[in-house]
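Notes to self after the call with IL:
- keep both proteins in one doc
- input above output, always
- annotate only the second one for now

Protein 1:
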Amino acid sequence: MPKTTSPPPAAAGFKLRLQGLLDRLLRSDSADSVPLAAGQVPRHIAIIIDGNGRWAKERRLPRQAGHRAGATRLHDITAAAARQGVRYLTVYAFSTENWSRPSDEVGALMKLFVEFFHLYDERLREADVRLRFMGDRDALPADVQDTWAYAEAESRERQGLQLIIAFNYGGRQELVHAARRLAQEAASGRIDPGKITEEDIARNLYMPDVPDPDLVIRTSGEKRLSNFLIWEAAYAEFYATPVLWPDFDAAALLAAIQAYQQRDRRFGALAPDAATSAAPGAGGS
């Protein structure tokens, strides 16, 4: 008989410890146990998912383990957002700048992209979640491109929350994409270059049918957009939290929504009381 081999004790112990951590993540994040937000919920939430590597380092795990925990969290937050009434959830999963990371980490992220779909496809189908992707698909490995195309086609008719994964995405790259399409329209005579409007740019972005985000969340304590939705997020409310992405659960999402509900969204205009006081004859200066 051929001799069977077992993983080294250290490797087996690592796998058990990682699986235990992932199981606890799932158990600790029962969206049903978190109350629904009172009042108006943002229609579109965008999240810059950050902190996977630090989460893994704190637990003496490799960075790939942090990314795997982050993928687990993405499924949970999708369910929590849908339960809160969010209609669009966009997550920044892999930026155009992430190619500069070590090749083994990039390769692991590509494999995780495909694995995430196959692991959660049935649950997403049951939840009526539509999957969409934004970014430069042509530069990705063939299996990632195939998964991207299949997931979008297979879920196109679903009516629930739209989960939009920004993968190989950059905000400046998206604007270059829009500019090239407008240049082609101008060259063919379909548009007058002197009459290009903001609406013309918007309809040539990756997701022209998706409303701009109301709320942009960044985990892990950083406070920058990092080239994410730089056109679409012009008037979004920004919420930074020190919570690392694998620990960002349904309760943390509710806290972000509640903070958003306290904001006064004026889109550049004055608040009603300020406008009244500034009106002619109202004593304002």
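Protein 2 (the one to annotate):
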Amino acid sequence: MLSLKEAGKLLTNAKVRRESGLFIVEGKKPVREALLVEGAVECLFITEEFVSSDIGGELLSSCKEASIDVSVVPESSLKKVSGLVTPEGVMAAVRMEAIEKTAGRRIEGALDKGFPYLFLEDLQDPGNMGTIIRTAEAAGVSMIVLSKGCVDPFSPKVVRATMGSIFRVPLEVCKREDEFFDIISEKKGEGYFFYAAALFGKRSYTDISFGKKSAILIGNEGAGLSERSVECADEAILIPMEGESESLNAGIAAAVILFEAKRQRRIN
């Protein structure tokens, strides 16, 4: 059984998360979402106050049915390790491998529907990353590929910002810098056409016909896509803007393009 102190390290240390293959989710809704994924929850921490509530009883019952270890802890102890200003009284340690397996089973059906791939290069903002993962589920994405330089998608801030989508969207997290480009090369070999979102793009995203084998590249919040990534793309596209704004937030840019691709799938 994981200790509460060890759970605290999972919240604050990306290296510990990677080495253990575990990450933490906090709050009623995220824990419920995690319990829906078979074999995902390693253990549950619940406060003495919350355990007596209706939802607390429901979560305890789910854990008993799945033979998941539960530790009842004082509220003050949970507050010491929690990443929330106002903890809801429950957190769970979740196995990355179980999430990856479950999400991976969704890929084939998504590909059949023409859902695009989304490649993210060196995104650093946890809120942006979480929003993009959430948006990717809503807009329909087969898989998100994250470069080695991206923020940890299993960090607490990212997990919270996904609003549960972390459990349903397939993620490929590159462990080497070149792995990102190896996957691009592999997908191009399978017939995927890559569109790079860039300020110097020649055509508007609305003039693009996102076919069944499309892949979209989104870059770092400040620097955009690297020269290497742009060179890998088949075409650079832009989002036309009014006024004096030079660029959009990476999360918003991804949403605009992904929902245009979704609109085209609906009418074609």
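Annotation: The two ends are 52 Å apart (CA to CA). Residues 4-100 form a domain with the 60s Ribosomal Protein L30; Chain: A; fold (CATH 3.30.1330.30).
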